[in-house]
Amino acid sequence: MNTKEWYADYINQAVYDIKYPVEPEGLYAPIAYTLASGGKRLRPMLLLAACEACGASADSAVNQALGIEMYHNFTLLHDDVMDRADVRRGRPTVHVKWDDSTAILSGDAMLTMAGRLVMKVVDDKILRPVMELFNTTAMEVYEGQQYDMDFEHRDDVTIDEYLNMIRLKTSVLLGAACKLGAIVAGADAATADSLYEYGTMLGLAFQLQDDYLDTFGDPAVFGKAIGGDILNDKKTYLLISALRCGDDAVASEIASMFGVRSDHKIERIRQLYVEHGIDRLCREAIDYYSDMAEKSVLATELPADAKEFFVDIARKSRARSK
Is position 209 within any domain? Predict the structure, then answer.
């Protein structure tokens, strides 16, 4: 197994080496801009690591790793348009730097490019399971996004509904990344499924950590302004837990601020979260899903260094600040 730094450098170099058509520049420049902005590269890292953990080389899965990273970034382009987000990874979003139409069209192109990359398998016998997993995951991500949009118009969203939404919108792509690496390496079904479970549980912990950091993180480290979810009345684990904490006064006060956009609103709701232990509940949920991720990979027959690699990612993800 290689180190996280090695995988990050490997995928960054592979991203840098992508050759885009010269024209039309207006289509491809935003794609290059988006991928060059970096990010955690977690999904391609997991894919490459899973492939090596199952006995194959990283080179054999580089196209799938690039495809998953391309797909992930395609979703971000469209998400930023839907959410009217101005900043992504410390830089202007594509729809701000260019315009909405450019972000949508370049995102569409990224989706097609992602599919082309994922289907570039070394062995044609695995093409069908690879593409079935990729396409199934893509549809689940869209379903999760729709649920997220639906929740904007509902005041009765439950924690279970929310967890299912983030599982679809965020977690299944991490699970698919792990399983794709295993499939490319020729792993047995049980190992591939366990790695999928690992990625999915890790994804749940990861999204819950994002919820937490959006409210309690350091904006200089997190890469964007803190409190955006609060200002937008976003149905997060924190908000839903507060509305359903059993204290009618808390729920009423928070509901009275819906539609308000002010620094006072951010500070007051943050205060309510702390006073009523909502921040603690979120931390406990993060720890739970991180532990579940660990258990999934420890139950496999992967080499010891591979298990250590994946466990380390799960443990560090719960303590990350960006």
Answer: yes
In angstroms, rounded to a whole number, what is the distance separating the alpha carbons of residues 193 and 5?
26
Strand partners, 92: 87
Task: Specify the pTM.
Answer: 0.93
Other beta carbons within 10 angstroms of residue 185's beta carbon come to: 20
Residue 322 lies in a domain: no
pLDDT of residue 223: 65
- Looking at residues 94-106, what average pLDDT do you find? 96
Q: Tens digit of pLDDT for each residue in 145-202?
A: 999 999 989 989 999 999 999 999 999 999 999 999 999 999 999 999 999 999 999 9
Largest CA distance in the chain: 61
- 302 touches 192 (CB < 8 A): no
- 191 lies in which domain range? 4-317
Chain-centroid distance, C-alpha 25: 28
Q: Specify whether the CB–CB gap between 240 and 162 falls below 8 A.
A: yes
With respect to residue 219, please indicate whether it lies within any of the assigned structural domains.
yes
Cβ-contact 166, 276 below 8 angstroms: no
| Residue that the structure tokens 């997991």 belong to | 46
Nearest to 238 by CA among 210, 200, 263: 210
Q: Residues of the chain with pLDDT > 90: what percent?
A: 87
Cα–Cα distance measured from residue 116 to residue 2, given in angstroms and rounded to the nearest whole number: 27
Question: How far is the C-alpha of 268 from the C-alpha of 240, rounded, in Å?
Answer: 16
7 and 41 in contact (C-beta within 8 Å)? yes
Phi, psi torsion values for 92, nearest 5 degrees: -60, 140
Number of domains comprising the chain: 1
On whether residue 178 sits in a domain, the answer given is yes
Mean pLDDT, the chain, rounded, equals 95
CB 54, CB 190: distance < 8 Å: no
CATH number of the domain where residue 230 is located: 1.10.600.10
